[in-house]
Amino acid sequence: MLANAISILTVAAALFGSQVAAKSCHLTTTVSHRQNSACGSGSCITGDTFVGSGVLEIDGKVEWDGDGASYDNLSNGDGVDVDAGGVQFHIDALGIPDAQDDPNCKVHIGDDTNVGTGEAKNVGLPGVVGRDFDCTHDWDC
Known about the structure:
Blueprint: H1 2-21, E1 24-40, E2 43-58, E3 61-64, H2 71-75, E4 80-84, E5 87-91, E6 106-109, E7 112-115, E8 117-125, E9 128-140
Antiparallel strand pairs: 1-2, 1-9, 2-3, 4-5, 5-6, 6-7, 8-9
């Protein structure tokens, strides 16, 4: 009887222990292009700004702050390989914000592909126009 109780507790601890050990990964990535034409006080600042970035949080703690991410590799390049906080994955390029309607939100985790939620945003501020692609991914890691 005691042996059965110990066996049941051991199995329960193994099952529940593995569920507690799962971590929560939250990844956000962004590609943006801004065309600046701001003038004020006699000077004009013109030019384009290109940004590619990302943030990985594991259980709410930032483990990757975009190191290695750039507009070139996150817009139409090879993407970014990430190894942070014991988690390894590859972010596919999101696409070129000015050339397509929706971002490509795919992250490869081993043999699995996580398709995230994407959003395209237009920016129209005085002196600045642009477009952003944002992707959000959540998974147990």
